[in-house]
Structures are given as C-alpha cells and as structure tokens.
Amino acid sequence: MEKSQWSDLHWDLILIITNQLGLIDLLSFRGVCNYWRSAASSLKASAEIESLEPRPWFLLYGETAQCSLLTGDHRMYRIEIPELAESTCLQSFVGWLLLYGKNSKSLAFFCPFSGVKIEIPPCPLISEQSESDLYAAFSSYPTDLDCTVVVVKHNKDLKKMNLCMLRRGESEWTFHEHNIDRIRFAGKIKSIAIYQRAFHFLDEDSTLVEFKYDTMRWINYNIVASGSSTSAKKLNYLALEWINRDSFSSKRNEMKQLLGIDRCSISICGAMILQGDANHHLRSYEFVEEDEEESNKPRRELKGVWLQPRFHQISEDQQRW
Amino acid sequence: MSSSVEAITVLSSDGDEFKITVSAAKLSKPLNWMLEDVCFSDDCDEVPTIEVNSKTLVKVIEYCEKHAPRANSGASDSDAEELKKWDIEFMKMDVKDILFHILMAANYLHMEGLYDLACQTAADLMKGMTVSQIRKIFHIKNDFSSEEQEQLRRQHPGCSFD
After folding, report:
1. ipTM of the predicted structure?
2. CATH code, B7-127
3. In this complex, is the C-beta atom of B146 within 8 Å of any C-beta atom belonging to chain A?
C-alpha cells in the first residue's frame, strides 16, 4: 500500500482531531498506527469531550480480569482489566478510580482505560478493616498538586465517624474524628460529594456531614427541599432526588439485562459526576441483592462502579504520591 | 491596474490558471496580500503562483466564492443554516486525494474556517468506526507488531482490529 499522508499528520492537527473524539473513538484512533498512538500519548489526549455527556458509564467487575462496560448510550463492551480482579473500587471521580487492593491492603488511583496507576502511602485506618465499612473520596485530579484523599470508617454501631486524610506530597495520614451520636446519621454513608474544598457525607435520610479539608472543621446539616427555607445553603450538585431516580436499584432489571447478568448481587461504588456548568450529581453507594428466584443456579458476587470515561496519562514522576 | 478589478488570475502549483474574485480572495490573508500586490503594482502582467495543486485549488476557490458574501457582509441565521448544509455537502470528497490537501492548503492560506471544517470532517469520519475501518478510510498501514496488537486489543473494549 502506498504510504498515506494521513499517517504522519502534524501534531497540531492530531490535537484538533483527538479533542473531538470520545473515549471509544479515541481508543480506536490510538489503535490505527504507531505514529497516531504515540502522538495521542504525547498530546495526552484524554477524551475530555466525553465529560460533557451527562450519563456516566457503568463498569461491572469482580470475578476475573474480564469486566463489562456499559456506555452512557447503552452499548456494551467486554474489557480486560487485570487490576480490578483483586481490587475494590472505593470512589470514582473525574475519570479516576480509587482502588483498594485486597491482597496488598493498599490504595491506588487507577484509570481503567489507560491502565495507569498512582500509588499512595498505606492508610492506617484500613489495615484491620473489613472493606464493607470503608468509604473514600478525593478532592480533584490525583495529578493536581493539592489533591486530598480521605478514607472514612463508619457503620451504624459507631457513634463516631473516623476519618483519615492525606494531602498529596505528605507521607503521613492524619486522623480526625467526628461525634455523630446526636445527629442521627442513619446507618450507612450513601454518597460523598466534593463541594468548595470540603467533603460532604450524605446518609440515606437527609443528613449531611461536612468536613472542610483546609481547616479540618466538621459541620452538620439537614437537607431540606429546595425553597422551603430562606436560610438554607444551596449546593451545586443534585443529591437525594437524583439518587432515587438514577440509582442502579431503581432500574435494576433494565441494567441487569443490558449487562447480561441475572442471578447475582452487586455492590456498587459511589461517584460524583461533573457536568460542566450544570449541577453536578451524585451516584450513591448501593448494594443490589440477588433475586430470590432461581435458587438452583450458582450465585455470583459482583461489583460495579459508575464512571466518567477518560483516558488519563501520567508522567513517570507521577506514579507515586 | 486600478483597484476596481473584480477578479484576479492565479497559477496553481501545476501551472494551471484560475480566476478568483476579489471578495473571495479576501478570505485568505496571503491571497489578499497577493491581490494588493497585483492591484497596485505597475507590473500587472505577472500572475502569482499559489503552492496548491489544481485539483485542490478548484475546491478552495469554490469554498471562498461561496463563503465570501457572508464573510464580507454578515448574514442572517437562515443563510448561516444554508451555508452549514452546503459545507457538509462540500466536504463529501475523496479522503485520500483531496481532504488532506485541503487541510494543508487551508493552513498555508490561513483560512481558519476551512481548516476547522476539514479537521471536523476528518474527526467525524473516525467516529463510530472500528480501527480497521479507519485504516481503510485514511489508507493507513497497520504497523503494530503482533504483541502490540494484542495489548491494544485488550485495552480497547470490543473493537475489531482485523
């Protein structure tokens, strides 16, 4: 075949073109030839355009490296992600997952499409902890110099919320606890939001606990209907309404059918979905129980996570916090 | 030559002569400079050469002539809509032979609108395509080793590389 001029396009052009491609198209672009691939890598093409898409993708994992990926417009793909076979996702934000490695008992940021990983120093809170009570969140892109990660231990028997915090560049986690006995924080944490340099922990009811990570101050709030109180603070994200309407549970049959699964339980990791100038929204932590019928079939325990599809790349010095 | 000329003659890189109206030439800075040179110099017999081949230059001039009225006087929304449709039709061209040269010409002639349109067209041609379809459209040879191919296959959900 005669060499096409397209195979050594000027980088300016490659930048303009890749800026217009969503994640699947970007992956295809990277698969065309060596030159296109290395140019897209050097230009750090990340499919940012997909962040404008309001519907997050869903990644089902948990048994082997074989995962199922459901795009926002309901296309289903099989994808091999070895890192997820041994890990549990604790948070999903801006295209990064925060993973807890079962064997290593360590935390790392991970981009499931590029496969890049950023390891963070071990968190003292999770050494002896069963992962079902573990929650975590991070404040921004892990590559940002002021990114802050928190790990929270909470269950309904505890009268305290225990939190460990690490800022990028620091080697020691700091401990912070908050007495929640008086505020009736119902059972489990349902969602975690990032709002104006604070983490917001929301329960299943309408209680919100805020932790400002610069001043390390805790504040309790009650969530009220919009407009019902003039003194109420307005948030830039949609919480409870959205949780009810867009949860996995609320459309479990459709989701299970799309993913091609039947008898299984799925524990789903929370996510905060950014939406440009519009209100951001939260996807909650959920545990979807298996169906009662068909008890003769073997049971599967799967995990899932909502995510904003991005192709993140890092430089070598960013592999460790 | 007086400044009342309505069209100038230019040569393509293949040596063919083309006529372009003054208002259309204004879409490109280099063309506009040429135009001023031609209009105001005493030596008006010289025909300037544009380093774009004939096949491409025909299309570039077609684009300029179509866009000139709007660029020079502004246009209503309905005109803009009509022009958008025209652009889409205009861009239905052979990818290997013309689209690439249009991109290069738009760059060389500082025609931002045409450059963006050609980039957009190239990106649109890739959307929803498999890797092998993209290679076919853009006539690109697969130069990955089988190991690299295997790694790409694993990373790229559900895409056919064959």
Report:
1. 0.85
2. 3.30.710.10
3. no
